[in-house]
Amino acid sequence: MRVGIGYDIHRFVDARPLMLGGIEIPYIKGLLGNSDGDALLHAICDAILGAAGLDDIGHQFPVNDDRYLNISSSELLKEVSAKIKKKGFRVEYVDSVIILEEPKIAPFKDNMKREIAAALGITIDSVNVKATTQEGIGAIGRGEALAAYAVVCLV
């Protein structure tokens, strides 16, 4: 068994859909990024890669490689899953937390869990998505960005 942790943060920008946990969430802003900016899936990717002893998401999918420009982060997660399977690992469990002031994500958590589970080929009860606020402190608290942490267990 191996454990990995991942973290990502992205700033909010206008004129972009908000992708989080592999789904689009209705909101007035989206996340800036080379891909679709899905900070939650990026944190999960990094946690999986770290547990497998592989280089981080930035090394695996460089921002200067046009193949990854505006790519769905669900596709990146599927690629990460394939990479660890080649090393003989599988994801046993994913626990994650999103830190943001708004929008409220409670209505979307089940769909996020379904999307993450499907991308990894695991059951939905092997994925947990939680959320909290920054209590108005810092860039996240001012609504300028959101961040995500993930911990995974590989076997």
Number of β-strand runs: 7
Our Rg estimate from Cα atoms comes to 15 Å
Tally of separate helices: 5
Q: What gap, in angstroms, lies between the N and C termini?
A: 5 Å
User: How are strands sequenced across the largest beta sheet?
Assistant: 4-1-7-5-6
CATH class value? Alpha Beta
Order of secondary-structure elements: EEEEHHHEHEHE
Strand content: 25-35%
CATH architecture: 2-Layer Sandwich
- Identify the CATH homologous superfamily: 2-C-methyl-D-erythritol 2,4-cyclodiphosphate synthase
| Poorly predicted residue ranges | none
Our count of domains comes out at: 1
Instruction: Predict the CATH topology.
Output: 60s Ribosomal Protein L30, Chain: A
Largest sheet: 5 strands, mixed
Structure explained in plain terms:
The chain contains five helices and seven strands; from the N terminus they run E-E-E-E-H-H-H-E-H-E-H-E. By secondary structure, the protein is of the alpha+beta class. It has one domain: 60s Ribosomal Protein L30, Chain: A (2-Layer Sandwich), CATH 3.30.1330. The chain has a five-stranded mixed sheet with strand order 4-1-7-5-6. The termini are close together.
